[in-house]
Amino acid sequence: MVPYRLLNRYMAIGISKLSLPHSNAIEMPKWAHLGLVALLLISTTQEGAADIDWWENASLYQIYPRSFQDSDGDGIGDLKGITSRLGYLKEIGITATWLSPIFTSPMSDFGYDISNFYDIDPIFGTLDDFDALIVEAKSLGVKIILDFVPNHSSDENVWFEKSLNPKNGYNNFYVWDDGKLNEETGARDPPSNWVSVFSGPMWTWNEKRQHYFLPCFGGAAGLTLQSIVRHM
């Protein structure tokens, strides 16, 4: 086969002769030009394919676990239900699926307020169920993407509980502020007038620590870079 780079050069300069190394010039008949273009396209695809990551041409399907497939009749979708449908997803051409959060959570924000990043919420199943899902997905060639939420956690997370004591090493895991002293009332006002996306003030006072913390969504407390580097 004529090397791709030589074909590319031929197409670029638009001549009808192609000089190959250690050979005489080859006269290109007019009808061969169309075939050369096709050959160039094939060669380009083959050469470029090795440089393409799987996600660049994946057929991606998002799954919202609680409403996708219920395997035990409790009215809530679960991991076993997802596993049972992987074959169908493969059949319709899906090569990767993105799961909305399945980690332990009080579900104030439908799983985006995570209280334990290392376990599966019981409404979806167990770690064994997750392992079984991964095994089945791998056998089918379907990749699994988890919705990872490093920006914040639930205020029921053990990290938040530990952060309430500034002396135990978790002081800077969350965004804390002592607020501004109100000279008229003697109380401490929020450090800013930011408004939450769920309405109401953005900052939340914590009575135990006597500081304001910065929630992101509902009961989800904003994590700092230190917590992400240390535990994620």
Your description of this structure?
The protein has helices spanning 4-13, 32-49, 79-91, 127-140, 158-163, 225-231; strands spanning 17-18, 26-27, 60-63, 96-99, 103-104, 116-120, 143-146, 152-154, 176-177, 180-181, 188-189, 204-206, 211-213, 215-217, 220-222. With 232 residues, the protein is α+β, with helices and mostly antiparallel strands. The chain folds into 3 domains: 4-51, no CATH class; 55-149, 2-Layer Sandwich (Transcription Regulator spoIIAA), CATH 3.30.750; 153-231, Oligo-1,6-glucosidase, domain 2 (Alpha-Beta Complex), CATH 3.90.400. A 3-stranded parallel beta sheet has the order 3-4-7, covered by helices on one side. The longest helix has 18 residues, at 32-49. It is elongated, with a radius of gyration of 29 Å. Residues 1-47 have low confidence and may be disordered. Its EC number is 3.2.1.20. Residues 62-232 form the Glycosyl hydrolase family 13 catalytic domain. This is alpha-glucosidase. It holds the Pfam family Alpha-amylase.
Short description:
It is built from six helices and 15 strands.
Largest sheet, spatial ordering of strands: 3-4-7
Proportion of residues in helical segments? 25-40%
Average pLDDT score: 79
Structural class, by secondary structure, is alpha+beta
**CATH topology descriptor of the largest domain:** Transcription Regulator spoIIAA
Taking the sheet with the most strands, its summary is: 3 strands, parallel
CATH architecture group name of the largest domain: 2-Layer Sandwich
In the CATH scheme, the class of the largest domain would be Alpha Beta
What is the CA-CA span between the terminal residues?
50 Å
Order of helices and strands: HEEHEHEEEHEEHEEEEEEEH
Q: Which stretches of 5+ consecutive residues score pLDDT under 50?
A: 1-47
Helix tally equals 6
- Give the tally of structural domains: 3
Strand content: 15-25%
Rg, alpha carbons = 29 Å
Task: Write down how many β-strands occur, each being a DSSP E stretch of 2 or more residues.
Answer: 15
Choose one word for the global shape: elongated
GO molecular function, one term: alpha-1,4-glucosidase activity
EC number: 3.2.1.20
Protein name: alpha-glucosidase
Domain Glycosyl hydrolase family 13 catalytic: 62-232
